[in-house]
Amino acid sequence: MTTSNASLCLLLLLSVSGCASTPAPTTPVTAPETQYHARVVAPDTGEALDVSTLADRLREMDVVVVGEYHGHHGAHLLQSRLQAALYQRNRQQVLTMEQFEVNHQPALDRYLAGEIGEAELIEDAEAWDNYRASYRPLVEFARTRDLPVLAANAPSDLVRCIGREGPGYLAQLPEQRRQHLPEAPFTDTPAYQDKFVEAIAGRHGGAAATLTERLRNTYQAQLLRDNTMASRILAAHDRYPGHQVLHLTGTFHSEDRLGTVALLAQRAPELEIAVISPVFWPSDQPQPALDDLRGKGNYLYFIQPLPDEFRDAERARAAMTERFSRSSAVNCD
């Protein structure tokens, strides 16, 4: 994308002054008022942007990746508004979604073609529980305008079995099960592994050489998701020349340009990719510290924090145990 005159002037100013901190924003960033609100910011300048201005700046991008905290109303409303604004500027658009698994593409295609209804889509494609509240508007926008929608996530049962048995599990699968997966399903980037280990095991999780087998397998399962999404975004770009790809994913897969974004850039370095990342508005300070956040994405959007799931530690442990019990019920034989 061509650098705007305003951005160029800013870069020249910084090069002369030698100051690396974020300048005072021309439009103050205010806290989101409700769970539906999102405040978009250009982190390099501190400038607050409305969705229309954001879409103007993204119009030449090949791929726009919008990270989310799953189920947050502010994230999903922003995604829907941005989808419409980008479409106004480029009618050639493809929606790719982590929220559908690649093996369910036939069900998604049947729905888009009007062959099945929404309840049938939800059942046949095993849609997420919050599909109607969070993703229906995005799929319906694409459907009513005859825009392609691609399922982008790896099959959840394969992800669970990789996490349990390791990457060698794929070798025993029949070709029909492997056909939806990328050729290099466990391609890695070192910085992403460090981030993953810190998120799962804490700051003292250890280096790659000392990872436990279980944690290493869990990371390989994560890589299967990211490599699958990267390959599906690239497939959308190749299959629909001239189309802008809008990809929706959990923010861990895209922020800091790691995960899916890093793997996509490895596969196709010529692509112009923009990352938009969510950040919870800090409750203990009047303004966010943008200097600490600018690496998270080309643009940030601030949303209200989600409420605590549990205050009772025992109930939290019981809920986590139940989640893992459901995961272990998958047959990997």
Rg is: 20 Å
Secondary structure tally: strands? 8
Question: Termini, distance in Å?
Answer: 49 Å
Number of helices: 12
Categorize the overall geometry.
Answer: globular
Q: Would you give the CATH topology of the domain at 36-154 and 238-326?
A: Rossmann fold
What average pLDDT do the residues reach?
89
- What level of helicity do the residues show? 40-55%
CATH architecture term of the domain at 36-154 and 238-326: 3-Layer(aba) Sandwich
Provide the succession of SSEs.
HEEHEHEHHHEHHHHEHEEH
CATH class of the domain at 36-154 and 238-326: Alpha Beta
Strand content: 5-15%
The major pleated sheet works out as: 8 strands, mixed
Spatial strand arrangement across the major sheet: 2-1-8-7-3-6-4-5
Overview of this structure, please?
This is ChaN family lipoprotein. This protein has 333 residues and is an alpha/beta fold. It has a domain at 36-154 and 238-326: Rossmann fold, CATH 3.40.50.11550. 43% of the residues lie in helices and 14% in strands. The protein is built from 12 helices and 8 strands. It has an 8-stranded mixed β-sheet with strand order 2-1-8-7-3-6-4-5, sandwiched between helices. β1 (39-42) and β2 (47-49) form a beta hairpin. The longest helix has 27 residues, at 213-239. The radius of gyration is 20 Å and the shape is globular. The chain starts with a helix and ends in a 5-residue tail after the last helix. Residues 1-22 and 204-209 have low confidence and may be disordered.
